[in-house]
Each structure stands twice: as C-alpha cells, then as structure tokens.
C-alpha cells in the first residue's frame, strides 16, 4: 500500500511538471531512453544539465554586469543555454532564453536584465521541483519509474 | 532513390555504424550517445571540434559518419564540416537549436548531408545510416564508372572550397531573369519559374552527382535533358534548374577534358598554340556555371582564369595550375583524359584559332608567370557569365562540333546554350593547359616571360580597372547589358590576339594606361572580395590584350570582323557575324 501511495505521488508530481509547463515532451524522450543500462538516465541528464548550465548562468551574470553590454556575446551565451535547456525539455527556461535573445536583438539592456532575472527564477524553480521528483523516484526504487509513466 | 543498388556490406549493416558525435554541450553529448547506442550504433563522443578532427585524422577509416553541433567554442561547426569533407569525405550531419533557414542553408552549402534541430529525437538518428549507405552505393558506382570518377573529382573540389560569399555573389551576378529568358527561348518543353532559380544553390554532393551521372548514362548523351535526368534521379527537392545547370557544368567538364586531349594531339602536330587558347575558355565556363550552382570554389578559380585567358590569351599558366590541382586530387582522372584525347577529333575551332592565336599565346605565358592575379578575377567572372547567355545560342552547332566530344552525345537544344558557349570559349582557351604539359608550349613560354615579366605585372592592375567597368555596366543594364558585354568580350579576344601577335610589350603598356583610367574600382573591390580565394591571375592576360582595343572604338569595330573571319570557316557563323558586329558597336558606344 505504501509503495502504491508513493507511486501515486510520483505520478502526480511528474504530471505537475508538465501541467505547469516546466518541461515538455523532450522529458518524455529522456524517460524512454532509460533502460537497464541507465536506470536513472533522466536524473543523470538533469544533473549534468544543472552542473553545466550553472557555469553558463554565471557567465551571463558576469556579462550582464558590464557596460556597455556585449549583446553579441550575450546572445551567444544564451544560444548555448537554450541548446542545453532543450536537452531536458526545460520549457519555461527555454521560453525565457528566447525572450532574452529577442532583447539582445533589439539591444535592450533593460530587457535582457529583466528577462534574465525571470530566467533564473524559472531555472531555479525547475531545479527544485525536479530534484524533489527524482528524490521520490529514487525512494520508490528503479522498477517504479516505469510504472510512473502514463 | 537508390534505384535498387547493391545491398550493404553485411547483413547487420545499420547496426554497428560508427558514429562520431561532436558537441560542446555535455548534456546533449550524453543524450546523443545514449540514443545512438539504442540504435545499435557504435558511438564515440567528443566535446571539442579540434579533438574530433584529430580523432578523425588518426583513424581515417575509423568512422562512418559524423554528427556535429554548429556552435562550438573552439571551432565553428561549419569549419569542422569543411575539414571533414575535404580530408575524410565522410557524411556529416549538423545539428543546432537554431532552425534559421540561413543557418541550415549554410550547413547544406558546406556539405552537410543533413541538418537536425535540437531537441533531436531518436527516430531522426535511427535513420542516419542512409547517408552512409548512399555513399557506399556511390563509391561502388565510382569503381564501375570511370567517367563518374572524373566528374566527382571536379565536383568535390568545387563543393569543398565553396564559401557563402562566393555563392551569393555568383547568384547576384547571374540574374534569375537572364536565365529565365534564355530558357524560355531555348527550352520549349519546360519553362522554369524564375523563383526557383534563387533556390538553385544545390551542393552537388558526390552522391547526388553519382545519381546524376547514372541518369545521364541511362538516358544516353544524345537524348539527355534536365527534365529526363530529374525524373530519373528522383530527388524530390531537386529542381529542373538545378539539374540543368549541373548538366551544363558536366558538359563543360567533359568538353574541357576533350580539349585537353585535343591539345595534346595538336601539340604533336605543331599547331598547338591555338588549342591551348581554347582550353582556357571551357574552364572559364566551368567557373561560371559552378558559381551559379554554388558548388565549386576551385573550379571557379580555374574557370576564371580560363575565361580571361580566352579573351586575352594570357592565362595559360593559370590553366596549367588548374590542371595540376585536378591531377593531384584525382590521379585516376588523368589516364582517362589521355585515352579520351586519342578518340577525340580535332575541333574546327582549334584550326582557326591556331592561325590567330599563336603569338598571343606567348604573351600569355609570360603573364602567367608574373602571378599578379588578384585584380583580374572580377573581370573573368563577368565575362564568363555574359558569354554564356548569348553566345550559346549562336554557337550551338559549332560548339558541339568543336568539342568533338567523342564520348558525349549531342546536347539538347536548351542545354546546348550554356554548353555551347563554354565550348566555344574553350576552343580558344582550352589548349594552354595542354601546352604547358606539352613539349612545345613550355619552350615558347619561357622567352616571353623574360621579356615581358615586368610589364605584365603592371598590366594586371590596369586590367582590373577595365574589368570593373565592364562588370558594372553589365550589372546595371541587366539582360540587355549582358549582350553588349558579351560582344565586347569577343572583340577583346580578337583584339587581344592581334595585338599579342604584333607586339606584346606595346599592348601591355597600352593596357596599363587605359586600365588606370577606369572609374569602377569600387566595384572591383567588391568582386574581389567575393572571389578572392579563387582567382589567381586569370585576368591579367586579358587586360593586356583587351584594353587597347577597348579604349579605341575603331579597334572594336574591327575586332568583330577578325573574329568572324577566323570563325567562319570552322563555325559557319555568317548570320551571326552581323549580330556580333552590332554588339561590338554597342559596346563601343557604352565605353
């Protein structure tokens, strides 16, 4: 019973990731790649993403502090971040990346700063949610991940 | 697509495909590795383009296909793509989170066999074996088909080196309208829409070319038409225009080979010089066509030189260089050429041209030696383009005869146009290359070099300026302008020849003075930028010869006559002479 309860919780959490628009179908793709060889593949990828992208976020933070802003460089960073974020299907982060790049295009420093704040917020929110989710999945054990899918 | 060709090497074929993945993003690297492994592929991942390149160089046969990200910090993905295409000749798939058409186009232009957008799905990766398979099919074909090898070589060179700027420039020069007009005139069957021409930048990959060659062989040279080829090739995205322009190139290529062979023969006869001149022309046409197609930088360069040579007869050296390059890249091509030569009959043109060109030939050689070629490039380009349009029609019959493609069948009427021009041009220019190779050629050249080396250098700059003026005019005038230009080129040739005969030094000096006065320098600069890599010194020769006549209206008028006289016997251009004459006058008035 408790296992079932946990399982249900996992399913609800997972569904909320989609319902809140935090992740898109790429996340499902990753889940489908999970197999015996890589039972925690999604988590591994997410961990890798957060490790790698935090460096990028830091770089962008630094670049945003300089004046005048190097929009070309910012755009290049954001391009990287967008590509990276697409790997785990971080939908909202991705949307902010696009927004940011649009501000780069028109050379709006204010827009860049504002959208980057928003981006970091989404980035952090996803991280928090997704980590909680993975923790629960780990608790349930490897077998249960598959069941949690639709 | 495959036309039921041979099956893959082994039964498990797609499984075990060796894939090299290059991406600076570790997350994607991990995902792609997993996906590819799930496809039963053998995966190697690489976070740096430079590392990937060294991996590829270490194990040249260690991979079947490369998947590379476009944006990488250490090396642009397109750069890597170029290297792989040049050194390894592996199929490369580009990937990026950006789906901008221009980016994708760039990737395709650089030779990518596919362009995937992130997030990449496994089903997309599952199919990548087709690129490897396609390539293998073509490789087998290559072995079977000698001709195809040569063609491939030619195509490869072009595609590897092509860069965007070049292509764009070419496109601008060759206006869609012009082509359309020509096609309408000559191609009753299919009227292509002008809009499709803009999309004509097709990179003729080896695979694609193989299909093309196969289709041509199937149809038979006598009956080939772009439409037929297109149907046989069965490549959905390919347009009739793409095929038509490629067919032209292909014919030119073949014609050039023939010319070379002819030249060899002629050398033995002693009337070699003319033949040398003619080879240059074909190459020039090549360059033009290529640029239009967006395929080949190398070819373009060579062609540029050639075209110039035709007019001026100076470019002999460049031609030789071009040939040398080709030889290096494809040793196999040479033997074929030699054999072909024996088969080919001497073209009519060559005979005529021989009379006129011998003197000029010497002067040309010296120019080549000088090596001041940058400025000349722009001119060549304009020349080659313009002539193709109008000349083709007039000279069609002649061209076919001249080239005497023993192997090649007669061209279709629509196709003829482009090809013919090239051929006619080539008849004038093609031989220089052979001359260099040949015994007679070198002897003549050396003395000239010594005498004219210094003067020639100066001439180059002057030629550039003249060229610019021509080009600008053509651009402004559009179609109409093109015709006059063409005529002018013709006149130039004759003039160049005449002058060269009379006094090489004097002509060059004149040219220099004349060239300096030209006001279109800015235009040249633009052109140069576009063509920089390609053009060596093709234009130099032309400048010397052409300029004096150009400046003097009276000379121009005379030129047409000369041309006609020389041409008539071989080509039977009686009717055309009148046209030429008019054109020459137009040019004159323009100046």
UniProtKB/TrEMBL annotation, chain A:
<keyword id="KW-0932">Cytokinin signaling pathway</keyword>
<keyword id="KW-0902">Two-component regulatory system</keyword>
<feature type="domain" description="HPt">
    <location>
        <begin position="38"/>
        <end position="133"/>
    </location>
</feature>
<dbReference type="GO" id="GO:0005829">
    <property type="term" value="C:cytosol"/>
</dbReference>
<feature type="modified residue" description="Phosphohistidine">
    <location>
        <position position="79"/>
    </location>
</feature>
<keyword id="KW-0597">Phosphoprotein</keyword>
<dbReference type="GO" id="GO:0005634">
    <property type="term" value="C:nucleus"/>
</dbReference>
<dbReference type="InterPro" id="IPR045871">
    <property type="entry name" value="AHP1-5/YPD1"/>
</dbReference>
<dbReference type="GO" id="GO:0000160">
    <property type="term" value="P:phosphorelay signal transduction system"/>
</dbReference>
<protein>
    <recommendedName>
        <fullName>Histidine-containing phosphotransfer protein</fullName>
    </recommendedName>
</protein>
<dbReference type="GO" id="GO:0043424">
    <property type="term" value="F:protein histidine kinase binding"/>
</dbReference>
<dbReference type="GO" id="GO:0009927">
    <property type="term" value="F:histidine phosphotransfer kinase activity"/>
</dbReference>
<dbReference type="Pfam" id="PF01627">
    <property type="entry name" value="Hpt"/>
</dbReference>
<dbReference type="GO" id="GO:0009736">
    <property type="term" value="P:cytokinin-activated signaling pathway"/>
</dbReference>
<dbReference type="InterPro" id="IPR008207">
    <property type="entry name" value="Sig_transdc_His_kin_Hpt_dom"/>
</dbReference>
<comment type="function">
    <text>Functions as a two-component phosphorelay mediators between cytokinin sensor histidine kinases and response regulators (B-type ARRs). Plays an important role in propagating cytokinin signal transduction.</text>
</comment>
<dbReference type="InterPro" id="IPR036641">
    <property type="entry name" value="HPT_dom_sf"/>
</dbReference>
UniProtKB/TrEMBL annotation, chain B:
<keyword id="KW-0805">Transcription regulation</keyword>
<keyword id="KW-0539">Nucleus</keyword>
<dbReference type="GO" id="GO:1990110">
    <property type="term" value="P:callus formation"/>
</dbReference>
<keyword id="KW-0932">Cytokinin signaling pathway</keyword>
<protein>
    <recommendedName>
        <fullName>Two-component response regulator</fullName>
    </recommendedName>
</protein>
<comment type="similarity">
    <text>Belongs to the ARR family. Type-B subfamily.</text>
</comment>
<dbReference type="GO" id="GO:0080036">
    <property type="term" value="P:regulation of cytokinin-activated signaling pathway"/>
</dbReference>
<dbReference type="Pfam" id="PF00072">
    <property type="entry name" value="Response_reg"/>
</dbReference>
<feature type="domain" description="Response regulatory">
    <location>
        <begin position="18"/>
        <end position="133"/>
    </location>
</feature>
<keyword id="KW-0804">Transcription</keyword>
<dbReference type="InterPro" id="IPR045279">
    <property type="entry name" value="ARR-like"/>
</dbReference>
<feature type="modified residue" description="4-aspartylphosphate">
    <location>
        <position position="69"/>
    </location>
</feature>
<dbReference type="InterPro" id="IPR001789">
    <property type="entry name" value="Sig_transdc_resp-reg_receiver"/>
</dbReference>
<dbReference type="GO" id="GO:0009736">
    <property type="term" value="P:cytokinin-activated signaling pathway"/>
</dbReference>
<dbReference type="GO" id="GO:0010380">
    <property type="term" value="P:regulation of chlorophyll biosynthetic process"/>
</dbReference>
<dbReference type="GO" id="GO:0010082">
    <property type="term" value="P:regulation of root meristem growth"/>
</dbReference>
<keyword id="KW-0902">Two-component regulatory system</keyword>
<feature type="region of interest" description="Disordered">
    <location>
        <begin position="422"/>
        <end position="450"/>
    </location>
</feature>
<dbReference type="InterPro" id="IPR011006">
    <property type="entry name" value="CheY-like_superfamily"/>
</dbReference>
<dbReference type="InterPro" id="IPR001005">
    <property type="entry name" value="SANT/Myb"/>
</dbReference>
<dbReference type="GO" id="GO:0005634">
    <property type="term" value="C:nucleus"/>
</dbReference>
<dbReference type="GO" id="GO:0003677">
    <property type="term" value="F:DNA binding"/>
</dbReference>
């Amino acid at each position: 019973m408790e296992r079932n309860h946990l399982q249900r919780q996992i399913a609800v959490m997972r569904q909320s990731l989609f319902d809140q628009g935090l992740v898109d179908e790429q996340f499902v793709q990753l889940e489908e790649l999970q197999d015996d060889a890589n039972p925690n593949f999604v988590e591994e990828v997410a961990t890798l993403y957060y490790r790698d992208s935090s460096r990028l976020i830091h770089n962008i933070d630094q670049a945003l502090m300089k004046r005048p802003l190097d929009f070309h460089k910012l755009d290049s960073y954001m391009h990287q971040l967008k590509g990276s974020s697409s790997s785990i299907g971080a939908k909202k982060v991705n949307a902010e990346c696009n927004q940011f790049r649009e501000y780069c295009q028109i050379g709006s420093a204010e827009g860049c700063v504002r959208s980057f704040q928003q981006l970091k917020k989404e980035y952090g929110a996803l991280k928090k949610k997704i980590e909680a989710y993975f923790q629960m999945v780990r608790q349930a054990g490897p077998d249960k991940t598959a069941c949690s899918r639709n | 697509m495959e036309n039921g060709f041979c099956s893959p090497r082994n039964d498990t074929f797609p499984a075990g495909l060796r894939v090299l993945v290059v991406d600076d993003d570790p997350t994607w690297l991990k995902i792609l590795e997993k996906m590819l492994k799930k496809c039963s592929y053998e995966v190697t991942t690489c976070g740096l383009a430079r590392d990937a390149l060294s991996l590829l160089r270490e194990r040249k046969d260690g991979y079947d296909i490369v998947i590379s990200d476009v944006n990488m910090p250490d090396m642009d993905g397109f750069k890597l793509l170029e290297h792989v295409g040049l050194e390894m000749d592996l199929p490369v798939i580009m990937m990026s989170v950006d789906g901008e058409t221009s980016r994708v186009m760039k990737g395709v232009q650089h030779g990518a066999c596919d362009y995937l957008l992130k997030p990449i799905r496994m089903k997309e990766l599952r199919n990548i074996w087709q690129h490897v398979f396609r390539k293998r099919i073509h490789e087998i074909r290559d072995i079977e088909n000698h001709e195809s090898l040569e063609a491939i070589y030619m195509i490869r060179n072009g595609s590897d080196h092509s860069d965007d700027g070049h292509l764009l420039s070419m496109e601008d020069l060759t206006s869609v309208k012009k082509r359309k007009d020509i096609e309408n005139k000559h191609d009753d069957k299919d009227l292509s829409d002008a809009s499709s021409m803009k999309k004509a930048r097709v990179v003729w990959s080896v695979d694609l070319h193989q299909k093309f060659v196969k289709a041509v062989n199937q149809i038979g040279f006598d009956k080939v038409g772009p439409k037929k080829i297109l149907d046989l090739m069965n490549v959905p995205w390919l347009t009739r225009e793409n095929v038509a322009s490629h067919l032209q190139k292909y014919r030119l290529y073949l014609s050039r080979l023939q010319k070379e062979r002819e030249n060899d023969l002629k050398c033995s006869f002693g009337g070699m010089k003319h033949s040398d001149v003619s080879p240059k022309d074909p190459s020039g046409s090549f360059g033009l066509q290529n640029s239009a197609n967006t395929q080949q930088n190398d070819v373009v360069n060579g062609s540029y030189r050639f075209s110039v040579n035709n007019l001026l007869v100076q470019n002999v050296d460049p031609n030789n260089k071009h040939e040398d390059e080709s030889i290096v890249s494809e040793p196999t091509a040479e033997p074929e050429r030699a054999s072909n030569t024996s088969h080919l009959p001497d073209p009519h043109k060559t005979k005529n041209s021989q009379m006129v060109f011998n003197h000029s030939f010497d002067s040309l050689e010296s120019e080549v030696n000088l090596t001041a070629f940058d400025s000349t490039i722009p001119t060549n380009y304009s020349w080659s383009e313009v002539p193709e349009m109008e000349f083709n029609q007039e000279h069609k019959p002649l061209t076919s005869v001249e080239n005497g493609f023993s192997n090649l069948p007669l061209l279709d009427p629509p196709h003829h146009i482009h090809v013919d021009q090239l051929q006619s041009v080539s008849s004038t220019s093609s031989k220089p290359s052979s001359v260099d190779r040949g015994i007679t050629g070198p002897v003549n050249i050396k003395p000239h070099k010594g005498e004219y080396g210094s003067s020639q250098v100066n001439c180059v700059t002057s030629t550039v300026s003249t060229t610019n003026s021509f080009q600008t005019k053509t651009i402004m005038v559009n179609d109409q302008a093109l015709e006059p230009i063409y005529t002018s080129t013709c006149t130039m040739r004759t003039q160049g020849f005449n002058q060269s005969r009379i006094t090489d030094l004097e002509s060059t000096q004149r040219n220099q003075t004349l060239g300096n006065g030209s006001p279109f320098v800015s235009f040249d600069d633009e052109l140069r930028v576009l063509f920089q890599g390609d053009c060596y010194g093709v234009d130099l020769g032309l400048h010397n010869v052409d300029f004096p006549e150009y400046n003097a209206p009276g000379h121009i008028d005379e030129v047409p006559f000369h041309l006609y006289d020389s041409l008539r016997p071989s080509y039977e251009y009686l009717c055309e002479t009148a046209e030429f004459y008019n054109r020459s006058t137009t040019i004159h008035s323009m100046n």
